[in-house]
Predict the 3D structure of the following.
Amino acid sequence: MPEPIATATSEPTPTPEPTATPAPDEFVLHIITPEFDDSFSDTATIVVSGRTRVDAIITVNDAFVEPDADGAFSAEVTLDVDPNTIEVVASISTGEELSTVLSVIYAP
């Protein structure tokens, strides 16, 4: 009788769960940078970037910023020494508005 052949078994690698992506018509305001609402900077400018609906009107400290075809946007903000308040507002034609306020301390 032949001896049984040993076979190696491996456990399947778990597949990570995909992150939910908002639907194109879902109205969100997601800030990507700066990462934290309260940040520190040693440079005189900071880039504020995020994502929203492609048809949203966006302002960063009252300056208009146009989103790209994917709803991504970015704006460079000049900082004053010490605390700076940066307000990001997105609004759509229905009158809905989302906003967030960031605080960045510039310490050269």
